[in-house]
Every structure is written in C-alpha cells, then in structure tokens.
Task: structure prediction
Amino acid sequence: MSKSLRFVKARFPSTSDNLTIQSMLITHDPLGFVEEEDWWEVYFDEKRWPMVEASFKRRVDDEGLSVSFELETIDQKNWNQEWEDSIEPIRVSDRFVIAPSWHSVEQVHGVSVLTIDPKMSFGTGYHATTRLMLRLMETTVRPDDRVLDMGTGTGVLAIAAILLGAREADGVDTDEWSYDNALENAQRNRVDAQCHFRLGSIEQASGVYDLILSNITKIDNLQLLPGYLHRLNTEGRLILSGFYLQDATDMRLALENLGMRVMDEAHEQEWCVISAMKDTI
Result:
C-alpha cells in the first residue's frame, strides 16, 4: 500500500445499527478503528476513501438504513498527534493491559502490559474482537506452541502469544503499514527474536503450527479455513473472530465439515470468538 500524506476520519454516533455499519466498513480494511460508549471512528487512506464511501453508501441504501457521520481529513503531519490522542491504556483480559508507549501503567501482579503503538493498524484493544481473542488465548496457548497470526495488524496477538508461553509466532498481513507496525511493536515488547512478520497472506506461512489466530472478517475466515487446516499439525488449534454472534452457527458448521471440533465460544457486544481443534477421533 502506498503511504499517502492525507487520511480520512469518519466519526459515527453509537446507534442500534453500529454492528451492521461497522461490518460494512471493516471489509474495506480500515487503517485504524477506535470505539467509545457514545461514538466510534474509523480511519482510511484518503486515496481509497471515495471507493469505500461509494460502496458503503450503496450498501446502506440497500439495507434501508439511515446513517449520519462526520468526515475529517487529516494531514500526515497531524496524524501522529491525532492518533495518539485517541489511544488510552485499556484492560482487555485477566492477563493483559494494552497501552501505548507514551502512557505509563501501574504494574499489577500477574498482569502483563502489552506496549502497542498502533500507528494505523487494527489491534489496539478498543475493539471487542481483539479483547475476545486475547481472553480465549489465555486458556488456549500452550507452552512451546508455534503460532500463526493471520492479519496481524499491530502484531498484538502474536506478541501476546509469546508472553503466554508460545515458543515462536509468525504474523502475516497484506498491509504494509501493519507489517512495519508489527515489527516495531515486537521490538517494544522485547519479543522480536521470537516474532517473525511477513508481508502477504497464508502463502507466506512457513511449515505447520500448533495454533492459528485469525481475527479477520467472516468471509475471509471461511475462505481461508481449508488453508488453516493444512497448516495445523495433529491436534492443532484454531481461534477465529471478526464475525457476529449471529454468524456463529455458520462458522461452527464450516469447522465441523472440515473435521474440526469446536472447543469454546464467547461473545461481547454481539461480536463472537470460537476456538476449535483438529478432531483426531
């Protein structure tokens, strides 16, 4: 992705249609996403925004939704301050707090601080799917696991896997900003010797894995499931998110049809996460 000098911020009020609207925009690979109780924001490269907006408005019309939002264009020189001002430390699970490097966090026994400077990548902890993935990882990651993180974004899940005891974590992402950001965040958390990031998709994965993490869209998860199965070793495990609770049945059926056994499931704000294991019976 070319790094343009301007970005678009779309700010939406929180409404009952939040999930539908967010799902429409997430499929266009936003650069960043911030959510609060009364509002939420999504960021895009200015060069891509006209295409995204046209597609989004068509789908809104097709769904018969009434959507209002504010747009702001941000220059590159103002981007860092804009983004930094929007990010605060957040407790995401029993084991983890996610915090940017410019905020100090009080150390709590048994709680690890994931130092994540998000640059423009998804994975700040402000979205429910990131929190769901981390919570399920706490009971799924095993000592010495070899882990693959698909659509790694900030690298937060790969980094967390190492802090939970994994031996090695590979992260792949098709976005150049994310690739650069993940490398930087691994260094910030002093796990860069164990985290390996590559620009691309599953074709950049190497060998087989004990655990695959995939916090992407429902459609992408379904398309990639056969490839995941091929990359999992015997009794390998999989954690999927990025889809709604209403889509959980479709995801379970797809997993079972591929010979996977669903192990656990959780949800937050109508977003869902599912873990599964290769069924050896």
